Amino acid sequence: QVQLxxxxxxxxxxxxSLRLSCAASGFSVNNYAMVWYRQTPGKERELVAFxxxxxxxxxxxxxxxxxxxxxxxxxxxxxxLQMNSLKLEDTGVYYCNTPRWPKTWGQGTQVTVSS
Length: 115
Fold this sequence. Notes:
By secondary structure, the chain is an all-beta fold. It has no helices and ten strands. It is globular, with a radius of gyration of 13 Å.
């Protein structure tokens, strides 16, 4: 059974950092593209970061380029999102997903950036 469990969110001041984790089970994160999304109230779910299945091709939303980094650890079967220089507008619930099983979502992890 394919499952995704996000963690690592919390309350952080503007300019701070957080690292989110997405622990996968039922498949290997090394074999599939992985994506981080975020959802804020009143807005559609937004793609934040993408990492390809082969090699280490990555892509980011313009709003987070240069601040966020997506990576994977195949030994831990986990995908990470390192978030630096956080801004108020980064607040939201963050989810990971894989295009291979697009309907499989975890519970998400709440990130709140506030002074």
